[in-house]
Amino acid sequence: MTQTAWGAGFATETLDGEVLDTWYRWLGWGEYEGGDFDDELVAVERADHPSAERRGVRVRAARVTIDVDEPPASPGDAYLRLHLLSNRLTPPNSMNLDGIFGALNNVTWTNLGPVPVERADEVRFAEFHDGRRLTIYGQDKFPRMLDYVSPPGVRIADADRVRLGAHLADGTVVMHEGYCNFNAGTLGTSMVEGRISQGVVLGDGSDLGGGASIMGTLSGGGKEIVSVGERCLIGANAGIGISLGDDCVVEAGLYITAGTLVKLPDGSVVKGADVSGISGMMFIRHSQTGAIEARARTGKWEGLNAALHVN
Q1: Cβ–Cβ under 8 Å, residues 284 and 298
Q2: DSSP states of 205-239
Q3: Catalytic site residues?
Q4: Of 35-39, 98-102, 172-176, 199-203, which gets the smallest average pLDDT?
Q5: What pLDDT, on the 0 to 100 scale, is given for residue 274?
């Protein structure tokens, strides 16, 4: 049994038909059946888009139905999957994203909109000739989430730090140095001051400290998807390559991978992979011996600062 999703919106494409991006203004689960917005689709498609000629692009209406259990078949297909994630219609790791990098085109993202990479210098010169500066946000396959989706109940201090396809739950705060990749994010109220890599999810009430990182699966050949449970604290400049259950703390500056040797409360020493997903533990580095230890939590972390998560 397959799961289908539909989207309707606007694709920006080159005059040769290469799709640079697609913004899905309307989307949902099931088959595309049209709606009251069809007239708006046609009107926007026919409207004059002042920067389109300069960028060497055109805007057309896009209407698609996709099978999310199959790999992305086109740029428009891939963009709908990213929109489903950022609109919180599905959680990370719930769709087939195999080959998504190959489905998307590399684009120069600017204040005028998407520009074909080979035309960026030409557009820059044309803007300069008219007394303006072209602002380039990046040159990549993935755009900034906030240029397409603004999820309610979320604060993002720097739009450049969150990619389209990030899933940010209501109550999430992403501070200036926080980062969230596509197909990753939060499942509840969370503080993000570190890096959430592709595939990673952070549970409700958890805090990813400044400069902290969670290992993803896009590089290094890793296949294990790392997750963090509820009410966890990963200290500043710490990191994990293993999953955490609920109510765990990782000491600031401590990085634990699957191969890290960890001393348990009973005195045994195991690899980090053997305690992946454990709950109620505090991971520290002994200040005298340097040994990494996992201790049962006896103290109480007071949790997130509620004042920072008021919308």
Answers
A1: no
A2: T-EE-TT-EE--SSSTT--PPPEE-SS-EE-TT-E
A3: 193
A4: 35-39
A5: 96
Q: Report residue 307's pLDDT band, with 50, 70 and 90 as the boundaries.
A: confident
Q: What's the pTM?
A: 0.94
Class of domain 4-104 (CATH, top level)? alpha beta
- 174 in helix, strand or coil? strand
In this prediction, residue 219 carries a pLDDT of: 54
pLDDT of residue 268: 96
b/e per residue, 219-255, with b = 16+ CB within 10 A? eeebeebbbbbbbbbbbeebbbbbbbbbbbbbbbebb
Strand partners, 244: 228
User: In a 3-state reduction of DSSP, which class is residue 256?
Assistant: strand
Return the CATH fold of 145-302.
UDP N-Acetylglucosamine Acyltransferase; domain 1 (2.160.10)
pLDDT, residue 310, reads 65
Q: How far is CA 295 from the centre of its chain?
A: 32
Residues of the chain with CATH 2.160.10.10: 145-302
Look up residue 300 and give its two tokens. Answer: 């109480």
